[in-house]
Amino acid sequence: MKTLALLALTAVLAVPSAWGETIAANGPSGAHYANGSAEPLCTVDPTTFDITCTATTIGGVGNTNATAILSATYSATVQCRNHGGQIVDVKTQTTEATSSGTLRPSRNGQLVVPSLSASAPTTQELLASATCPNGNWTKLLLGTPTLTSFVYTLTFAGFNQPYISIVGP
Questions:
Q1: Which of 55, 57, 59 has its CA nearest to residue 70?
Q2: How far apart are CA 14 and CA 99, in angstroms?
Q3: Global pTM value
Q4: pLDDT at 148
Q5: 137 φ, ψ to 5°?
Q6: Consecutive 10-residue runs of the chain (169 residues): their mean pLDDT?
Q7: Omega of the bond prior to 169 within 30 degrees of 0, cis?
Q8: Of 131, 125, 91, 133, which Cα lies nearest the Cα of 6?
Q9: Contacts of 117 (CB under 8 A, 6+ apart)
Q10: Residues with Cβ within 8 Å of residue 60, at least 6 apart in sequence
Q11: Which residues have a Cβ under 8 Å from the Cβ of 48 and sit 6 or more positions away?
Q12: Half-sphere exposure of 10 (CA within 13 A, CB side)
């Protein structure tokens, strides 16, 4: 009997900008995308499931700091098999990682938001997250990991909700 283990890895986000949302009420009153800059665009590599979100510059923020966070969740199927070939249930394992940073405005009240990216977990990372009943059992990854979701947010200090929120897929 095959057992599925959901393994989650939080790492960086990726989504088409059409999925993004900028909420002006959740930032300084003069906040806006600077000339030549636009809302970040997040993309997912269809082969590797790596996520990349583009940089942007937000003007009119005064001295208000912000935090940008990109996180992603991946899943994979893992089996545990003993030397006799018996397959046992694997408990659901969760591994989390995030890419984030506190951003400080430069001169003239502009906040430069760097590009954020995250890589899908390796086979070794996924297998290491799974727990078998005995250390002598063999862990087998069935198929390849898939991206189940991601979230990119930019939240200004002093505000409870994000100014930018991109969720996918």
A1: 55
A2: 12
A3: 0.77
A4: 85
A5: -75, 155
A6: 30 40 82 89 90 92 93 85 81 60 82 90 85 86 83 94 91
A7: yes
A8: 91
A9: 12, 50, 51, 52, 53, 70, 99
A10: 28, 29, 30, 31, 32, 109
A11: 119, 120
A12: 12
Provide φ and ψ at 65, rounded to 5°.
-75, 165
With the C-alpha atoms ordered 23, 28, 32, 34, is the resulting torsion angle positive or negative? negative
Question: With contact defined as beta carbons under 8 Å apart, do 40 and 15 qualify?
Answer: no
156, 111 Cβ separation under 8 angstroms: no
Task: Name the maximum alpha-carbon separation found in the chain.
Answer: 69
Read off the pLDDT of residues 149-168 as tens digits, 9 standing for 90 and up: 899 999 999 999 999 999 98
| DSSP structure string for the chain | ------EE--------GGGEEE-GGGS-TT-EEPTT--S--EEE-TTT--EEE--EEEES-TT--EEEEEEEEEEEEEEEE-TT--EE----EE----EEEEE---GGG-EEE--EEE-PPPHHHHHHH---SSTTSEEEEEEEEEEEEEEEEEEETT-SS-SEEEEE-
- Look up residue 152 and give its two tokens: 């990119």
- The token pair at 5 is 């283990």
**What's the token pair of residue 136?**
């002598």
Nearest Cα neighbor of 42 from 114, 117, 113 is 117
Give the per-residue pLDDT at 14: 35
